[in-house]
Amino acid sequence: MDNSRRNCLCGLGGLAVGGAVAALVGTGGSIARAAAPAKRFEQVNGEFGWKPHKLDPKECAKVAYEGYWYKGYACGYGAFYSIIGVLGEKYGAPYNQFPFSMLEANKGGISDWGTICGALYGAAAAFALFWGRKERTPMVNELYRWYEVTKLPIYNPGELAQGVKGDLPSNASGSVLCHISVSKWCAAHKIEATSKARSERCGRLTADVSFKAVEIFNAKIEQGKNYKGTFAVQPAVSGCGECHQTKGNDANWAKGVMDCTPCHNGAEPLLNKFENHP
Q1: How far lies 147's CA from each of 58, 94, 156, 180, in Å?
Q2: Would you tell me how many other CB atoms lie within 10 Å of the CB of residue 243?
Q3: 46/219 Cα distance (integer angstroms)
Q4: 246: in domain
Q5: Which residues is 177 bridged to in the sheet?
C-alpha cells in the first residue's frame, strides 16, 4: 500500500473514531449513552402492523382440517393457515406473503416432541401478527382454557374425512400439551397413538381449535382493548398459585398458568382444602 493511500485510510479512520467519541461526550466532558434507536428489529408498518378482518369460523375450520392433511398431520400449519392463509385468499398481501411451511414444524407437538399442541401454537402465532402481548394474552388464555376443559373433537368432516369416516369419541384433555392430550384420548378409548383414528382425531381437533380461535379473533376485532375471555382460571392454578405463584413467597417458583393436575399428583388433594399436599 502506498503512503498516500495509507494516509487517506488513517485519516478517515481518525475522523470516524473522533466523531464517535465526540458524539458520546456531553457538555460536562463525560461519556453519555448514544441516543439513536436501534434499527435491527424494526418492521414495516411497525411491530403489529397487519389489519385484522373478521372471518367465518365454519369456513376456517374446514380449511384447518384440509391444511392438517395437506402437510401430513400438521396441526400447527392447518390452524395458522386457516386464519392467515384465508385472510390472504380474501385480501391478498401481506397475508398471502407469509412462508406458511414454517408452521409445519409444529406437528406432533413441535417435530413430534409432544410439547404444546401445534394447533394451539398456530392460532396463538396468528394472533401475534396483529396484537402485542398485553392485548393478546386474554385471547390465548381463552383459547387454551377452552381447550383444557372441552370434550374434543367436535368437528366432523363427513364424507370428506381423510383418515377414517364416521363419528369419533371425544374427551377433555385437561392439558394443552400434545403428549397428554393425545395419550389421554388414546387411553380412554383404547386406540393406538399410531392409528389412523388418532390422526383423524387430531385433524378434527385442529378444525375445532381454528373455529374457536376465529370466534376469539372476531370478538377481539369487535371489542378492541375491552376484550375479556369467559373461561375462569383453573381451580388447581388458583389453589397452587397461593404458594407457587405469589410474589415474595418462598415457594414462588412455578412458571405458567396451565392446569396443574395432569402433571402434579399433589394438586388434587391441594384442592381439597390443601390436605395431604407434599
Answers
A1: 18, 30, 17, 12
A2: 16
A3: 23
A4: no
A5: 116
The amino acid that residue 24 corresponds to is L
Cell triple for residue 159? 364424507
d(CA 69, CA 206): 10
Which range of residues forms the domain containing residue 114? 57-227
Residue 41 class from Cβ within 10 Å (0-12 exposed, 13-18 middle, 19+ buried)? exposed
CB 166 within 8 A of CB 196: no
8 is a domain residue: no
User: Could you give the CA distance from residue 220 to residue 114 in angstroms, rounded to a whole number?
Assistant: 30
Reference 161, options 104, 192, 105, 202; nearest CA is: 202
pTM over 0.85: no
Q: How many separate domains does the chain show?
A: 1
pLDDT tens-digit series, residues 51-100: 999 999 999 999 999 999 999 999 999 999 999 999 999 999 999 999 99
Contacts of 195 (CB under 8 A, 6+ apart): none
**Is 130 within a domain?**
yes
Whether 220 is covered by a domain: the verdict is yes
> 263 and 255 in contact (C-beta within 8 Å)?
no
Can you tell me which residue has the cell 405463584?
245
pLDDT digit string (tens) for 137-147?
999 999 999 99
